[in-house]
Amino acid sequence: MESKRKVLQKLFLSTLYLSAFTFGGGYVIVTLMKKKFVDEYHWIEENEMLDLVAIAQSSPGPIAVNGAIVVGYKLAGMIGVLVSIIGTIIPPFLIISVISVCYQAFRDNFFVSQMLEGMQAGVGAVIASVTYEMGAGVVKEKDPLSLVILVCAFAAACFFKVNVIYIVLVCGAIGAVRTILAKRRGAK
Amino acid sequence: MIYFQLFLSFFQIGLLSFGGGYAAMPLIQGQVVQGHGWLSMSEFTDLITISQMTPGPIAVNSATFVGIKIAGIPGALVATFGCILPSCILVTLLAKLYLKYREMAMLQGILHSLRPAVVAMIGSAGISILVTAFWSSEGDTVIRLAQTNWSLVVIFIISLILLQKGKKNPIFVMVLAGVMKVAVALVEKFAACCGTIF
User: Fold this and answer.
1) Which parts form a coiled-coil structure per UniProt (chain B) (predicted)?
2) Structural domain boundaries of chain A?
């Protein structure tokens, strides 16, 4: 691993840069973080990243901020949390401060609205690509229960609009029950 | 006093908004529109529109926006700090517990079941973004083949190919997608102009 100062520097720049491009909600920053910290820097493993996302999701507060906190903590402890939060907060803080002065002109600008519409399609592609990679990882495990959870959780979130906190609680409970059953079977 | 009120309001928003930005919206509305009258309903609608057009979580954007309007830059700082403080405490605690106990069989079992669910929820978020992009006009989202925004569908496919086959940087792809849409819109405008001339 690189020196701590180097890690903090890279962490700050990455969160600053990713946060400036998280159009469309918290899941975007999570997918971008996966591409950056898992695929590019190899600081975090893919499964570990999914665990960290689960933590970010099951806590209250913005997912982007929570995601930055878990990654920061995992990489550099409390100082990492501080660095990644500051990196994540600066872009929206500056942008909203500027826009709050002239927001009508911004909202009605032709180039801005077209650019943003196009970026939505791009964001959708980034999420589709990450979902495909991570989904392939789950399928490769060849664990039937994991596949059932994948399908049911997807249906619950996408079609029935169930709040994510319930999905997290139910799936966590399934895992707990399964572990208890496996232990009992092992004991007999 | 006003600083303390801002801090307290956004602290509550940060503490109680489970499940991301859309869950936070009614809470923010309750605090800043109904609770304190810091924004009118139409200002709040503008705030949501701007939040969707700019990067960053809705809660953080709202904290900055409301803070500046009520008490200038210091107000914005106080409100933003209030909104992220609950996350800082809770998430750090959970991360600490996770890193300490993740070898435990029980936690392993729970996390093993959570992973596919996380993938599913990320995928679902992606789909709702795409549905809005492809089929939404004037705020309504109705899925109909005739009303599909085909230029965005094509941009989506090109982006996906660049990411999967070309292994391009995701942020580069996102910006390129925006530029492609601007180009398409300019061509459409130009064609419409020609149409009225001839």
Assistant:
1) none
2) 4-112
A59 near B90, Cβ under 8 Å? yes
Q: What is the pLDDT of residues A3-62, one digit of tens each?
A: 888 999 999 999 999 999 887 667 788 888 999 999 999 999 999 999 998 888 888 888
pLDDT digits (tens, 9 = 90+) for B150-168: 999 999 999 999 999 988 8
Q: Which residues contact B118 (CB under 8 A, 6 or more apart)?
A: A50, A53, A54, A57
Quick one: B157 and B94 in the same domain?
no
Contacts of A112 in chain B (CB under 8 A): 53
Give Cβ neighbours of residue B145 (< 8 Å, ≥ 6 apart).
Answer: none
Query: What radius of gyration, in Å, describes the C-alpha atoms of chain A?
Result: 19
- The one-character DSSP state at B149 is -
- CB contact under 8 Å between A115 and B182, yes or no, is yes
Q: Hey, of B11, B65, B108, B114, which one would you mutate to test binding to chain A, going by the most A CBs within 10 A of its CB? A: B114
User: How far apart (Å, rounded) are the C-alpha atoms in residues B151 and B171?
Assistant: 20
Q: What is the dihedral of CA B120, B122, B125, B131, to 10 degrees?
A: -70
Asked whether the beta carbons of A30 and A53 are under 8 A apart, the reply is yes
> Which of helix, strand or coil describes residue B136?
strand
ipTM of model:
0.80
Nearest residue of A to residue B134 by CA position? A121
Domain that holds residue B77: 2-101
Q: Where are the beta strands (DSSP E) in chain A?
A: none
**Runs of H (alpha helix) within chain B:** 2-16, 21-29, 41-53, 58-101, 105-135, 150-164, 170-197
In this prediction the pTM is 0.81
Total domains present in chain B: 2
Mutate to test the interface with B, among A49, A123, A181 (most CBs of B within 10 A): A123
Are the CB atoms for A154 and B124 separated by under 8 Å?
Answer: yes
